Amino acid sequence: MGEEAVHRAPGTSVRLRLTLSYAGFLVLAGGLLLAVVWVFLLRYVPEVIRSAQGVPGPDAGVGRPAEFVPNRSDLQRAFVPKAAAMLALLLALGLLGGWLLAGRMLAPLTRITQATRLAADGSLSHRVRLPGRRDEFRELADSFDAMLARLEGHLAEQQRFAANASHELRTPLAITQTLLEVARHDPPRDPGELLDRLHAVNARAIDLTEALLVLSRADQGAFTREPVDLSLLVEEATETLLPLAEARGVTIDSCADLTPVVGSPTLLLQLTTNLLHNAIVHNVPEHGTVRVTTAVGPGTAVLTVENTGDVLTPELVATLPEPFQRGTDRIRTDHAGVGLGLAIVSSITRVHGGSLDIVPRPAGGLRITVQLPTQPPRAAA
C-alpha cells in the first residue's frame, strides 16, 4: 500500500509567518521613513538658535516677548513620541492587516489541502474547482483536479479490467471442472474427446494468461528502448500469420518501407502481430483482404492496417480498444482470441508515446493507424 505519513515536529503556521513578515516589513518601512526625516531634516536644525546680531525682529515691540524659534532639542521632544506612537500603530495595523490578508491569500491553499486529504483517504470523485482568474493557486488547483480525474479514470479502468479478467479466467476453469466431472461420473465415455476439449480449454487459459502478462508489462513500461525497423516487424508478423490468412481465404498486401523507431522490439512485434491477427480474423468469410503499410512522417513512424469486413458503427469502434471486446459479438471461434488484442495495442502505443486511431471503413472493416515517435519520449529519456 502507500507509504506512511511523515511525522514532523510542530512549527509555526505559514499564515503566522506571513503576518509577521507583513508587519515587520511595514514597521521597517516606517522606520526608514522616520530615519529619512531625521537625516535630511532634523540634523540641519542647530542646537542653539540666536537671533542675527541680537537684533529683534521687525514686529517686536515694547511689551511683546521675542518670537519663539524651536531648536533641535525642541523638535526631538515633539517628534520622537509621535514617531514611536506611529511605529506602534504601524505594527498593530501590520499584524491585524497581515493576518487578514494572509488568511485571504491562503484560503485557496486550504481548499487544496482538504482535497488532498480526501484523496489520501481514497476519495477521487471530488474536485477543488477554484473560482476566479488564473494565478499560481488556480493553476495548482486545476492541475490537481486534472490529476484526480486521470486517477479516477485509471482506477475505474483497472477495476473494470480486473472484473473482466476474473470473468474470463473463471470461464475456462469452470469448463475444465465440468469436463472433469463428466469424466468422473461417466467412465465409459471416450476419453479422447474429453482430452481434446480439455486441451483446447487449457490452451485458451494459457493464451489469456500470457496476454494479461503482456498487457501488464506494457502498462508498466518496464522495457529497454532500442532502434527498431517497423518494416522488418511487419514482414515477420506477415510470415507468421500467413498460414492463418490462407486458411481463411484472406489476402495480405504489404507495402512496408524503411521505418525506424525507438522502442521495445518484443512489444512492437506484439503490436504488429495483434493488428494483423485481428485484421485476418475479423474479416469477410471469403476473399477478404488486409493491407499493411508503413511510412515515415515528420518526427513520427506510421503503421496502417486496413481490412475488409462487416460495416461497424463509430460507437462500436470506440469500444474496441477496451479489454475483452470482440467486435460485433462475443462468440468464440477457433481464432477469436481472448479479447485483449487491441487493448494490448493501445497500451503498447501509449507507453511508446504514440497515438492509436481506429476508423471504420465505409465499405466495411477498419482502418487502424499507429503513430510512433522516431525519438524516445522525454519522460522515458
Mind explaining what this structure looks like?
There is one protein chain. The protein is an alpha+beta fold and 381 residues long. Helices cover 55% and strands 12% of the residues. The longest helix has 50 residues. About 4% of the residues have low confidence.
Largest sheet: 5 strands, mixed
Counting DSSP E segments of at least 2 residues, the number of strands comes to 7
Strand order of the largest sheet: 2-4-5-7-6
Instruction: Enumerate how many helices there are, as a single number.
Output: 8
Uncertain regions: pLDDT < 50 for 5+ in a row? 52-57, 328-335
Structural class: alpha+beta
| CA-based gyration radius | 40 Å
Tell the overall outline: elongated
> What's the helix-strand series?
HHHHEHEEHEEHHEE
pLDDT averaged over residues = 78
Distance between the termini: 28 Å
Proportion of residues in β-strands? 5-15%
Helix content: 40-55%
Secondary-structure topology with pairs:
Elements: H1 14-40, H2 72-120, H3 136-185, H4 191-220, E1 226-229, H5 230-247, E2 250-256, E3 260-263, H6 265-281, E4 288-297, E5 300-307, H7 314-319, H8 341-351, E6 355-360, E7 366-373
Parallel strand pairs: 2-4
Antiparallel strand pairs: 1-3, 4-5, 5-7, 6-7
Helix pairs in contact: 1-2, 2-3, 3-4, 4-8, 5-6, 6-8
Question: Could you list some keywords that capture this structure?
Answer:
two-stranded antiparallel ribbon, five-stranded mixed beta sheet, alpha+beta, 7 strands, 8 helices
Summarize the structure.
It is built from eight helices and seven strands, in the order H-H-H-H-E-H-E-E-H-E-E-H-H-E-E.
